Amino acid sequence: MRSPASNVSFSLQAPAGHLSNLILNTEACWIGTITQQSNTEWVVNLQNSCIDTPMGVQTIGSICYTAISPQSAVVPLAVNNLSVTNQNASVPTSHAFGSRTVNIANEPLLELWFDDSGEKMVTLFGKGNTGYHINESPDITVPVSSWAPAWTNTVPTNLFTSIPLQDVLSTNTVPPVSWFQPLFLNAKEQ
User: For residue 99, how many other CB atoms are within 10 A of its CB?
Assistant: First the structure.
């Protein structure tokens, strides 16, 4: 028989020089603490005070922080030493997994990826409600000022937008020839 989690603990690590002032915000019946171990590691302990908690995937809290890097960056996060104790179990289960956070400072970030159908996508991370010009070039040695305009987009308040990447190098071959040719992108605030 399965039962809801009663205690959750884990350590969170990030590279030096990116995060500070971490604050734990919990949801509903959860309470917890976050304790700094070093400039790059924090320990999170959570307790569930509800006896009758619905099962399944749930948000039990969030961690807010101050981004201290003066440059925008994709910051890898490592979650280690995860321990979950169920209300009706005496032995904790342990797992480890990782993730990331995106810190937006004074310049936008672009991330290329493929969706589940294999379509080329680009995510633009930037300041909310701000427009950006995106330029492209198949040759990185060409000065950025000479790159061709690709599109203009406004980043919404959630700080990112993802769009299919359409480029003139695409063909009807599967996969398109353009997948194997370099494409460099640059974004500038309007």
Answer: 10
CATH code for the domain in which residue 143 is found: 2.60.40
Asked whether 186 and 147 are in contact (CB, 8 A), the reply is: yes
Residue 116: partners with Cβ closer than 8 Å, 6 or more residues away:
none
Same domain, 9 and 98: yes
Same domain, 87 and 145: no
Per-residue tens of pLDDT for the chain, all 190 residues: 456 778 889 999 999 999 999 999 998 889 999 999 999 999 999 998 887 666 667 788 899 999 898 888 999 999 888 888 876 655 444 445 558 888 888 889 999 888 999 888 899 999 999 999 999 888 899 999 999 998 898 999 989 999 887 654 444 445 554 555 777 888 999 8
- Please state, as a whole number, how many other Cβ atoms lie within 10 Å of the Cβ of residue 87: 15
Looking at the whole model, is its pTM more than 0.85? no
C-beta neighbour count of 166 within 10 angstroms: 12
End-to-end alpha carbon distance in the chain = 57
Query: Taking a C-beta distance cutoff of 8 angstroms, is the pair 123, 161 a contact?
Result: yes
Give the whole-angstrom CA distance, residue 187 versus residue 152: 9
